[in-house]
Design brief:
With 404 residues, the protein is an alpha+beta fold. The longest helix is centred in the C-terminal third of the chain and has 38 residues. A hairpin with a 2-residue loop joins strand 2 and strand 3. About 2% of the residues have low confidence. It is built from 15 helices and 10 strands. Strands 2-3-8-5-7-6 form a 6-stranded mixed beta barrel.
Length: 404
């Protein structure tokens, strides 16, 4: 019975191909828009979280900060940098963490032969690479003795390697940073651009002490990175770090801390939540097209019932029951909406292929949203097709047969 109703519905819809296609246009646009928005949104979210994770997903950052942009003394807005002693204190307090790395940065011009480039020079320790999960392409990391005495060695990013050495092997060569020579001992694997548009590969890393002595001329530390050890809870570690820093950097009563602590895991969760909320909001707007498509199906089904009134009367005269007529028209509405849903899913997958390729973001397909869209398009057919189907089912056979 149901199969016969489906076949009869297909025959009826195929008799008016153009009208059937125009009827499902709203469903196609609605389903296609929702899927396209979700796929593009998830791709953008994936790219953003990948870029944040490339900075180190199991990492806590401690950096100088001010309360509401005003210095804690209320007279100056200058940030108060950390000292080497702050780094040593954290190392003593948290020996089981995944590493502690001081970071100080300065701009400089690097020269090799006739090639030169302006780049960022970072002073740090070997633990920096483990915390940031940054691997070497060639060479080695700083040794303990090189860090302790501040030896003039450096590890360069891939972009610096290309700019200065033009494809040559840089290991063992000497480059000049400002007025001093540094031996290249390693080349980092490429990490690409960061979420703030900074090129991560355009960097030279040297032992912290040599940067403080020869380039920055201060004992300041701009940033402290703390890695989470195996099985270590980052939230607990963050709270403990905050307590240590409050004791080392006291402020007058009533003022906020002069430092900030950020957990990369929390940042990633926040970004995922925000992008998810934005995608849901845009999808809800796009879903309005489904409502418009449903109204279109109802309209066409009402027209169809009017056009086929005599046919309905004949079917009732030869024994068809109300439920038979109801199911027939309801199936037609559902077939229409599902047909539109399939076309919409196809459209919603094709559009993101071009958009994600142009925006250079991952093409992420969530099968759940495709399944939900398909089921929802069927529900649209049931909801908006029920009224015309009921109207057809409740016709008086005699009046229907008299209809011209």
């Amino acid at each position: 019975m149901f199969l016969q109703a489906v076949l009869l519905s297909f025959r009826t819809l195929l008799r008016n191909k153009l009208r059937s296609c125009l009827t499902v246009l709203g469903i196609v646009i609605g389903v296609g828009s929702v899927i396209a928005v979700v796929v593009i949104g998830q791709g953008a979210s994936r790219k953003l979280t990948d870029e944040i994770s490339s900075l180190g997903s199991k990492m806590i950052m401690i950096y100088p900060d001010e309360e509401n942009g005003v210095g804690f003394a209320g007279e100056t807005s200058n940030l108060i940098p950390f000292k080497n002693s702050d780094v040593e204190a954290i190392k003593r307090e948290f020996p089981d963490c995944g590493g502690v790395a001081p970071v100080a940065e300065s701009g400089a011009v690097a020269v090799f032969g006739s090639n030169n480039c302006r780049t960022s020079v970072t002073g740090t320790e070997s633990s920096y690479f483990a915390i940031r999960n940054w691997k070497l392409k060639f060479g080695r990391l700083f040794s303990s003795s090189e860090e302790r005495v501040g030896k003039s060695v450096c590890i360069i990013g891939e972009k610096v390697s290309k700019n200065l050495f033009k494809g040559m092997d840089p290991i063992g060569s000497s480059i000049r940073i400002d007025r001093f020579a540094y031996q290249v001992i390693g080349v980092l694997k490429s990490k690409g651009g960061s979420m703030v548009g900074k090129e991560q590969d355009d960097v030279i890393l040297v032992p912290l002490k040599v940067l403080q002595r020869r380039i920055s001329g201060t004992k300041d530390v701009d940033l402290i990175l703390v890695g989470c050890g195996p099985g270590q809870d980052s939230t607990t570690l963050k709270r403990q770090l905050k307590q240590v820093m409050i004791e080392r950097r006291p402020v007058p009563p009533g003022h906020g801390n002069n430092f900030a602590i950020e957990d990369m895991k929390e940042i990633i969760k926040t970004v995922e939540k925000q992008t998810g909320t934005f995608t849901t909001f845009i999808s809800a707007i796009a879903a309005i097209s489904l409502l418009v498509g449903g109204i279109g199906i109802m309209n066409i089904m009402l027209v169809s019932v009017t056009e086929r009134t005599r046919e309905i009367g004949i079917r009732m005269a030869v024994g068809a029951q109300e439920n038979d007529i109801l199911i027939q028209f309801l199936v037609e509405a559902v077939v229409l909406s599902l047909f539109g849903g399939v076309l919409g899913i196809s459209l919603g997958l094709v559009i993101p292929m071009f958009v994600t390729s142009y925006m250079k973001i991952p093409f992420v397909i969530d099968m759940r949203i495709i399944l939900i869209s398909f089921v929802f398009s069927g529900l649209v057919g049931i909801v908006f097709g029920y009224f015309p189907a009921r109207r057809a089912a409740r016709m008086n056979p005699i009046d229907a047969l008299r209809h011209e």
